[in-house]
Amino acid sequence: MKDADIVIFELIQKGDHKAFEQLFKKYFAMLSRYSISIGYDPELAKEVVQNLFTILWEKRRAIQINSSVKAYLFTAVHNATINHKKRNTFLRHIDEFENLSDQGMKPEESEGLEAKIRQMQSMIESLPPRCAEVFVLAKLKGVKQSEVAGLLGISIKTVEAQIAKAKKILAEGLKKSSSSE
To answer: What pTM was computed for the model?
Structure first.
């Protein structure tokens, strides 16, 4: 006999909104408390859990849960909480850098940095769509390669290949732009 949560998840994979709501109600508070216990602000913990459920719904057909839905959700919340904390720390560092640059960087240095950031954004946007999606998730948002594979319904080898391809294209683009300056 199948675990009740597995049966509910199979219904979710078929697009059953009521099953999704049932799983959400069953685990939302528990997962939020768990995220808080990792040392997270209660409001941000709720945001992390809500984002997890959003991704779960959007990628429901691609996600494979082989053991326990509960274990999968707790692992996903743990990873999402840690990644969210890393991103927030990174963004805080960017804010600090911007404050420092506002105070002490010469205008021409600041403009040069902004131009390089715009150039990099443009280069990422020009990558093939799947390649860009994988690169942004894995390298800019800090999502683990195995999670990227699960979210996008592709193999880890494909994730690795797409990241390598993106790095190669970006390196070539940077090389071209620095040689033309």
So the answer is: 0.51
